[in-house]
Amino acid sequence: MKKVGLFIPCYVDQFYPGAGIATYQLLKKLGLDVTYPTGQTCCGQPMANSGFEHLTQGCNQLFVDNFAEFDYIVSPSGSCVLHIKEHLHTTHSENQAAEIRTKVYELVEFLVDIVKVKNLKARFPHKVGLHQSCHGQRGLYLSQMSELVAPGFSKPLQLLSQVEGLELITLKRGDECCGFGGTFCVVEEAVSVKMGKDRVKDHLVNGAEYITGADMSCLMHMEGILKRENSQVKVLHIAEILNAE
Where is the Cysteine-rich domain (predicted)? Predict the structure, then answer.
């Protein structure tokens, strides 16, 4: 049996452990051999995004040390996966780093493209809005971009359509950015907040009870806006919905 290494980003581990636990439980339910390397830490994306990629060698080498033995590396965070796919390099283990870049997967793409899940045993009887993150669309190609004249597809939607009782709401702007953008929300706070409010409003006016997506960073940004507006709408990582019974 192929060995799967579970890569849990630091912000998920610290703030949203439920998303990491749900990912692990879901992969186990599907009969996969899953291991969580306990020595893992930050993948280095925050430093790289801030212009200090030359200082990420320690993070990169530790990632290689933790995950080189696995056939697949799976994570519930598209932005961190995209960072590893495009930026994992090491001075001493470049061949291993190059191999890892080809076998790291965001959870949704792993379930759709590798496991090819067809009949999820999940139930979530609620109205749900799907947020399709920018890096997921334009970096990992989890769904089609609306600016392209091309056939539409959505891997998250493909999985959510298998969940019993779930009612997916229709948004006016299905792939609009939430404004988080990692360090963008710090250096351009006002713009980030306005974009987030617009994204949240689209879900609210269309009756969402929950907002889901494949990346907790975007959901975290929108959750902050929802709480400040005293909204009862909640955010849940897609793994928590796919794992619901």
Answer: 4-85, 128-222
